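Subject: sequence -> structure tokens, single chain

Hey, anyone have a minute? Need the predicted structure for the following. Not urgent.
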Amino acid sequence: MRIAIFSAKPYDEDFLGPRAESEGHETVFLEARLTPDTAVLAEGAGAVCAFVNDDLGAEVLERLAGLGVRLIALRSAGFNNVDLDAAARLGLAVGRVPAYSPHAVAEHAMALILTLNRRIHRAYARVREGNFELEGLMGFDLNGKTAAVVGTGRIGCVLAHILRGFGCEVLAYDPKPDPELEAEGVRYVDLPEIFAAADVITLQCPLTPQTHHLIDDAAIAAMKPGVMIVNTSRGAVVDTRALIRGLKSGRIGALALDVYEEEGGLFFEDLSDRIIPDDVFARLLTFPNVLITGHQGFFTREALEGIAATTIANVTAFARDGAPLHPVTP
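Reply:
Had a minute. Here:
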């Protein structure tokens, strides 16, 4: 099957290309993001491989179906960018990668916590300039602190284990509690208790109508003063403007983001020679207690190998049986 791969980077070619070739598929790597204007580039392909910031709304899906595309192969776990009702109406199958390396994202979240707490990013910049002053770099011991994991799927479970290894008391919130975590001492509580008790709150939940802007002004007002918030899930789980208000008031003591509500057109691109037009994002960058990475959490060799294997397995299964291995339905 011919696969049109949008938002392609060199590492996508390195991992997806050989895997697709080994299973008899032809690949076309397209640097462009998938939009209504670029959908035409999929002409001649039976499958489109899309990433987190590609547009898979009704208009794009209609254009792809008109070109003869039959499968949307997501190389991600999340599918909030897909209009599933439109896909079903148009007869387009949708497959995703439900798991690759939960350790990749969980370890990145922990790296953000440690870096932000001990101001490693600021210390690095100071030392490079010959400044060895410690003022402004004080952190706190994680041992004995209360950390909360919101969303205990595979990634959240791994992160809970890591946090317990640092000596944290770990609270968790999830509609489906994990019995193994409970047996190990992780305590499931409701969100108000998490907001009131947690020194560190990490977000590992999918973006759904229920989790959209889960962290808003009311949630932040209920949090412990000086709380650290870490989001490595999806950008719109938090209300970015509410975060800015929380930072200005001092209610939020530190903030780490690997995702952003309006990251499409920003993340995965080199914009170092341009002015970033997003005023909200630019405002975030002015705070000394904010650390942002550009959707980097998944970016390990093991994760990319897993993503490539499952993505191409979805295409192979569809070509053979008419359905991907890991389908997504409305």
